[in-house]
Amino acid sequence: MIDSKRAPISKVVLPIQSFIQKERSSGLVLGISVLLALTLANSPWRDYYFKFLAHKLGILINANPFIELSLRHWINDGLMAIFFFVVGLELKREIVAGEFANPRNAVLPIMAAVGGMVIPALIYVGLNPTGAVQNGWGIPMATDIAFALGVLYLLGDRIPLSVKVFLTAVAIVDDIGAVLVIAFFYTSDISMVNLGIGLLFLILMFIGNRMGVRNILFYAILGIGGAWTLFLLSGVHATIAAVLAAFIIPADVRINEQIFIARIKKHLTRFKAADPNGYPTLTNEQLYILDRLAKDNKKAMPPLQRLEHALHPFVAFVIIPIFALANAGVSFMDIDRATLLETNVALGIALGLLLGKVLGIMGLTWLSVKLKLAPFPEGMNYKTLFGVSLLAAIGFTMSLFITQLAFIDESYQLQAKIGIFIASILGGALGYGILRSQGKAQKG
Q1: In angstroms, rounded to a whole number, what is the distance separating the alpha carbons of residues 238 and 12?
Q2: pLDDT value at 195 more than 90
Q3: Would you say 140 and 349 are in contact if contact means Cβ atoms under 8 Å apart?
């Protein structure tokens, strides 16, 4: 018999599994993807890089294009829909049985996140009050939860758990805000017919949920083949369909914990009593028992958490890095200083993220505590809150995503990306430094 831990393949698989399970790993992979995108965009192969992303792919029906989008568009509307689907699953889990299940626990992060969205938008609009550039007000509202938490987890046990929970909760509310902003402010001309049919598919999914359907394939067919496709054709951003579909996924179980424990004990007793055949293979009786065990395992796990658990590594280590490769490529060789400075797009985004996030999060947190709307988290002080607010200035993934929706003009997109990079790098470095020094002081 082969020991799975000593099998040759385990020397490859186990280190990969260990890397994926570490909280900071996704942030590290994202950082490498950004560096690779910047390298390609400023290398002799930069023309191939941009042409490859602009290459059109589509679905033809009777030689006519049904859907035809550039590769970058497929990534932003297709792959990122899976990202937003997982965001939706996480949001629903937090509301059902997480940080937001208790309304009192949710008050402080909600207030902090609202401040961290409104103040950056106001700063941006103050610097870009008119014209097409004003449309970028949603860019500095976003926080990149993967990057921010990745930096935070680099600090290890120097940081109390309450700080990590607070930043996670703020980032989750921030995600809700970003989804709403995309839904209501960054949509093109809407086809009410396609939107109506897309909503009909979501209603069918909801009916399936209420009737007790737990088959993931049922929701995948209606969600992807129906809701996502029709939302894409309607003009409402397809990622909104992904979030709405996620909220419809069942979050309850078919058998509760006590029944599950009793059944597991019964299966183990029967498996122990079953006569082995003396070979590495199993008997029909053993196979039957294990099959029943697997079915009960599935019944004891909510479909929502099964999907979230299965998709999270794929999103963190495949989708987000591909998104970064497609969108973080800024060619500094093409930057015209005069063009860069002709608007306040980069300045508005950089100040919105860096200054706006700090003022918004700290200001609304202080006000909420003073008004006794919510208690200040244990293990946190205002210096720690300052560091966390700076980490929230890492807007990267979501800010880049909104940039593609806010601006058609490539020069504005370039300026926005530079503002995002400046704020994210400074916010991450300063936040890390402050939290590290605070952690040392508390240990001392």
Answers
A1: 37
A2: no
A3: yes
